[in-house]
Write a structure and sequence with these properties.
single chain, 4 helices, 172 residues
């Protein structure tokens, strides 16, 4: 779908005309998620989807009129007794429409369904928009940590991206 198609979809979502569903993300959906990150990122998402049958991960997406427009997961294995929401992304042309809030609420519900009362999320300090959203949804900063993952430069070469993460917690 091109920029014009996403503009039309934005109008449909804004007006309430779009069909919005939160569904499990599948390997088949990955080709429609190029907007969410590099090929290195999508390879990692594919690896996380492979973990779903173990119960360690749930990976979901918000679909608008059949198109995945927001995606993210919850990792139950990262910390005992907690669900960690991660890899959350909304299509850049569709931000500000409540799609991430819809997804976060569903991920939180999946955590609560397992009887877990701690929900964690990490956000890079410069991502103020995300931090404000999490705070609005009841998350509170509990500290900082360092994180690293494989990333990709515009020329396709890969490197280890290192950053600080603001750790946030919500009690369900």
């Amino acid at each position: 779908m091109g920029e014009r198609g996403y503009g039309t979809l934005r109008d449909r979502i804004s007006s309430g005309a779009a069909r919005i569903e939160v569904l499990a993300l599948t390997p088949h959906d990955l080709a429609s998620l190029e907007w969410s990150g590099s090929s290195a990122h999508l390879e990692n998402v594919a690896l996380q989807i492979e973990r779903v049958p173990t119960g360690d991960v749930e990976y979901l997406a918000v679909f608008a009129d059949g198109n995945p427009v927001c995606k993210g997961g919850v990792d139950f294995a990262k910390e005992a007794g907690a669900g960690t929401i991660w890899q959350l992304a909304t299509h850049p042309l569709l931000e500000g429409l409540g799609l991430a809030t819809t997804l976060i609420r569903e991920l939180e519900a999946r955590v609560r369904e397992r009887g877990i009362t701690k929900i964690r999320v990490g956000v890079e300090p410069e991502n103020e928009r995300a931090r404000r959203l999490y705070e609005h949804l009841g998350y509170r900063t509990i500290g900082e940590s360092e994180a690293a993952w494989e990333a990709e430069r515009s020329d396709g070469s890969r490197f280890t991206y290192k950053t600080k993460i603001v750790e946030m917690l919500k009690l369900a």
